[in-house]
Amino acid sequence: MTTLGFIQNMGGGSIILIVLVVLLLFGAKRIPELARGLGRGIREFKDATKDIQNDLEEGLKDDKKK
Question: Taking the alpha carbons of 46, 48, 50, 53 in that order, is the dihedral positive or negative?
């Protein structure tokens, strides 16, 4: 099951309604700022997970050498 699997059950009208509500709540000027912040957060999360994965792989390599 995908993370955004619930979108499959939504129709076009529902998605348009959600977009309009978001536009009304935040305004057209604020949405790009929110998207940029979300993108930065996702990028930092991915970098952190890559660092952790690399550390784990290096630890496993060190254990195999011993």
Answer: negative
